[in-house]
Design brief:
Blueprint lengths: L2 H22 L1 H10 L21 H21 L2 H18 L2 H17 L3 H17 L3 H17 L3 H17 L3 H17 L3 H17 L3 H17 L3 H17 L3 H16 L5 H17 L11 E3 L10 E3 L7 H4 L24 H23 L2 H17 L3 H17 L3 H17 L3 H15 L9 H5 L2 H4 L1 H17 L3 H27 L3 H6 L12 E9 L2 E8 L2 E7 L3 H15 L7 H12 L4 H6 L4 E4 L25 E4 L18 E5 L13 H12 L2 E4 L5 H10 L4 E5 L2 E2 L8 E3 L4 E3 H8 L11 E4 L9 H8 L1 H5 L3 E5 L5 H15 L6 H13 L7 H4 L2 E5 L3
């Protein structure tokens, strides 16, 4: 098994599953909230979740369907109060079965009927459950809409219990979207109300959720305090499952905080508490969480713990060369103490963990495996496919790691079947992925490719699932990217050895499609909305690319840089044997030295990157007489201007016009009418909101107006309401903004400065989005003072996707803020060149950059290189 495979299979173990399990096991926790809320007598409330026996998913689905049929009959008969009760019972049953999509539909119906019946308490309860169900399927924005409605109704009714519950769920949804400050405020407000009302069960729930958000922020000590208070309160109010969950969370936070002895004690105590619980969904997930806790703790108590983190050139793309040291594989006697046949479900029952012997490290390894076996056996007994899927899947991973592939494959396929029973994509994608890894490791490439494709098709609709805690600790690229990269790796390797030209083209096209799918998913994760979906509907196919332009996909794999190139409709591939760590280091050094005008150190880094990225395809470009290079950059390569790469004699910009795009599938290449340009220019010259003045902006605005005319709003005229009015009333084809701009790690942290406010990316897309309803589209958005942080791949991703987000065909923007005077000159020259219909936008930028670089005072690439032409380059 390759390094990349083993790392990919382990990386999400600590992060992704850990927090997915916290979410899924929240059904029982939500029951604690509901049991703390008085029912509405007039609505004839159904039994609260906490009092319903979890008889398992199959019977729960039967109950849900029966409740739906009853609801339909009651509605037909006009007995709406009983229809609401039946929909409530259906929603509860679907939650027990883990079918949150159907649960959301049931809670929507229940809320609607309660509204018709003027039963606000029942409506709020249904909306809170609806918000919870929507979060489980990754629809956090929709969850917030439902929960805000619940909050408003509870406030109007002065029902502090329901208000606290709705605020708590709003906190969870906000935290999942990365809005930590808002989430913490929701939790604190909810806790204040719950404490005032002396709702100790609800306080315990809220403290656990607060702890999750604090842990996500890296505030482990405060998280531990919240968890421990939750544990004590839950224990005192009879919420055994919540007490155990909070205690396990406290143990995991203790590991993050370096408190390994305390973590061990808390895990041991949680196991003793867990043994007191009857077989249930909550207990099954408690066993799974305990298994992960022991697996987290195991390497920390190893004598080699200080060596666990090390530089490794085979680390996954995006990890910046750091990964966990491969864990030692115990012998079969240690790792798999009972070598029963995996198909024998009864064999999954094992002895209690305290019967293990040996060192703590061996004990924790064996205990983790035993807990997974016990969870699988229990899930099978109670008919809980969700818990069974996770337990079997991670047992399969244990066998995969010990290279016992037949057993691993059998367990993984059983995990897939269990997840399919209840439509659980948050686990299903993992097991399809794991199937692909196992098949690839055993040489069954065709089956592996099919499995990887199933994983990708499954993960696409739930990509927002990975935008919360784990998305901030590990990027989308780290946690989900390996699925796409491992498939591309297999396809590219097969293309390299095939002797059939047609098959080679087919494989390369499949690799290109995989790359495009990933880039669209990654960008959608960054912006967290559907802008990518609408952009793809207007996209151009590679067959429409001019013959003098080459598309270059640099694909960063652990052990090499693959170059996938389209020249005149034909796909070619080349490879450079450079590790991701070495490549990333070189890119970071190149970017850092490019910005330093006092040195020419950038030349050595620029030549090395040129050798890896351009030299392998240089002859192909020359033979085809290519004049424009369009890069679809990957990972850290987004953070550097390709125009500044150097062949030892000259910069790349001397030979080629250069453009970038986040994906060809996101690029609209329809031609623009340059004879009918209408320009709106917006600029700041004064120092406002703590930002320095930009004195050359006035000259820049005057020069733009001299070229294209149009309307200019400067300083006190550059107000958000004025911009909105202009864009609403006039049909502009270009918008030029000469102001400070920052593109951050998250879209919510990105903005452009107006005189009176900061225009976020969401606000910008709303302003410019009005063009989508007109015949005139926005052809070009220019941002002449943008900035991204050095080494911030996510910020560079946001810059590359800015045109997509704003709804513009093209964007001209800078990777870093440069000399005010040079910016003004370069942008003015760009617009002058753009007046020539025979000159593409990419060539117009090339000529402007060459003109600026020819001036002795501006010959350093820090002045001219950072400007990027993004998306449509024609």
């Amino acid at each position: 098994m390759t390094h990349s495979t083993s790392i990919a299979s382990r990386l999400p173990l600590r992060i992704v599953l850990r927090w997915v399990l916290v979410l899924i096991s929240g059904v029982g926790i939500l029951a604690s909230v509901e049991s703390a809320i008085p029912a509405e007598p007039s609505a004839g409330p159904a039994q609260p979740l906490s009092s319903i026996s979890r008889s398992g998913a199959p019977s729960a689905l039967v109950d849900a369907r029966a409740a739906k049929r009853a609801a339909a009959l009651y509605r037909t008969a006009g007995v709406l109060s009983k229809a609401a009760v039946s929909w409530t019972q259906a929603g509860q049953a679907y939650e027990r079965a883990g079918n949150y999509g159907e649960a959301a539909l049931a809670w929507t119906e229940a809320a609607s009927i309660h509204e018709q019946e003027h039963a606000p308490q029942g409506q709020v309860q249904a909306l809170i459950h609806l918000g919870y169900a929507l979060q489980q399927v990754g629809q956090h924005h929709k969850a917030i809409v439902a929960l805000q409605t619940a909050r408003r109704i509870a406030e109007q009714g002065h029902d502090n219990g329901l208000l606290a519950a709705s605020l708590g769920q709003l906190g969870k949804a906000s935290a999942a979207l990365g809005n930590d400050s808002i989430a913490l405020q929701f939790f604190n407000d909810a806790l204040t109300l719950a404490r005032q009302e002396e709702r100790s069960p609800l306080v315990a729930v809220l403290l656990n959720d607060l702890g999750n958000t604090l842990a996500a922020q890296g505030n482990a000590s405060e998280a531990i305090s919240a968890y421990m208070e939750s544990t004590i309160l839950a224990r005192g109010t009879g919420q055994s499952a919540l007490s155990m969950t909070a205690l396990i969370n406290a143990a995991m936070a203790s590991i993050d905080d370096g408190q390994f002895a305390q973590a061990k004690d808390r895990l041991e105590l949680a196991y003793r508490q867990l043994s007191e619980l009857p077989d249930s969904h909550d207990k099954a997930f408690g066993l799974l969480n305990l298994a992960l806790g022991y697996e987290d703790l195991r390497p920390q108590i190893s004598p080699e713990r200080t060596l666990l983190v090390q530089l490794d050139p085979t680390a996954l793309p995006g990890t910046r060369g750091i990964r966990l040291k491969p864990r030692q594989i115990a012998s079969s006697a240690d790792a798999l103490r009972t070598p029963e046949q995996p198909n024998d479900r009864s064999s999954l029952t094992v002895a209690p963990p305290n019967s293990s012997t040996g060192s703590d490290q061996q004990l924790f390894r064996a205990r983790s495996e035993q807990l997974l076996r016990e969870a699988a056996a229990m899930a099978t007994r109670i008919g809980d496919p969700v818990a069974e899927s996770y337990a079997l899947g991670y047992l399969g991973q244990w066998y995969e790691q010990t290279r016992q592939f037949p057993e691993a494959l059998d367990l993984t396929r059983r995990a897939v079947f269990a997840a399919q029973q209840v439509n659980a994509p948050e686990s299903l994608y993992r097991w399809h992925w794991q199937t692909g890894r196992i098949l690839a490791a055993t040489g069954m490439q065709d089956g592996a490719i099919k499995a990887y494709r199933r994983a990708i098709s499954t993960v696409q609709p739930i990509r927002h699932e990975f935008s919360g805690y784990q998305g901030r600790r590990h990027s989308f690229r780290d946690s989900i990217g390996p699925v796409f990269y491992e498939l591309a790796d297999i396809l590219l390797k097969r293309a390299a050895v095939t002797q059939d030209p047609q098959q080679e083209q087919a494989l390369l096209i499949q690799a290109r499609d995989t790359s495009e799918l990933y880039k669209a998913a990654e960008l959608q994760d960054y912006f967290k909305d559907e802008c990518v979906k609408s952009a793809r509907s207007r996209a151009t196919t590679p067959g429409d690319i001019p013959k003098t332009a080459a598309l270059i996909y640099p694909i960063i794999l652990p052990d090499r840089l693959e170059l996938l190139v389209n020249i005149a409709g034909t796909w070619k591939r080349a490879s450079s044997p450079v590790s991701v760590g070495r490549l990333t280091d070189e890119v970071r050094a190149f970017r850092r030295t490019l910005e330093d005008r006092r040195t020419r150190e950038y030349l050595s880094y620029g030549r090395q990157l040129y050798a890896w990225i351009l030299t392998p395809i240089e002859q192909d470009l020359a033979d085809a007489k290519i004049d424009t290079l369009v890069f679809i950059p990957d990972g850290p390569l987004r953070t550097i201007p390709m125009a500044a790469l150097h062949d030892g004699q000259q910069f790349l910009i001397k030979r080629f016009a250069v453009a970038v795009t986040p994906g060809i599938d996101l690029t609209d290449l329809r031609p623009i009418d340059r004879t009918r340009v209408r320009m709106l220019s917006l600029g700041l010259t004064e120092a406002v909101q703590g930002f320095p003045a930009l004195p050359n902006v006035q000259a820049e605005m005057d020069a733009v107006k001299a070229v294209y005319g149009g309307t200019s709003l400067i300083d006190r005229q550059f107000l958000v309401p004025a911009v909105q009015t202009e864009l609403h009333d006039q049909q502009y084809s270009m918008v030029h903004i000469a102001s400070h701009g920052l593109v951050g790690n998250e879209a919510k942290d990105s903005y452009l400065l107006s005189y009176d406010d900061k225009i976020t990316m969401d606000r910008l897309s709303q302003l410019i989005g009005m063009f989508q309803f007109r015949n005139t589209s926005l052809d070009l958005l220019t941002l002449s003072a943008c900035e991204t942080a050095v080494g911030d791949d996510r910020a560079a991703l946001g810059l590359a996707g800015m045109a997509v987000k704003a709804g513009a065909r093209s964007a001209l923007a800078s990777l870093w803020f440069i000399d005010d005077e040079a910016t003004s000159e370069l942008v003015t020259e760009f617009y002058k060149q753009l007046q020539d219909p025979s000159v593409s936008k990419a060539m117009a930028l090339q000529r402007a950059q060459l003109k600026i670089s020819s001036e002795p005072i501006h010959d350093h690439p820090s002045y001219w290189a950072p400007f990027l032409l993004i998306n449509n380059w024609l």
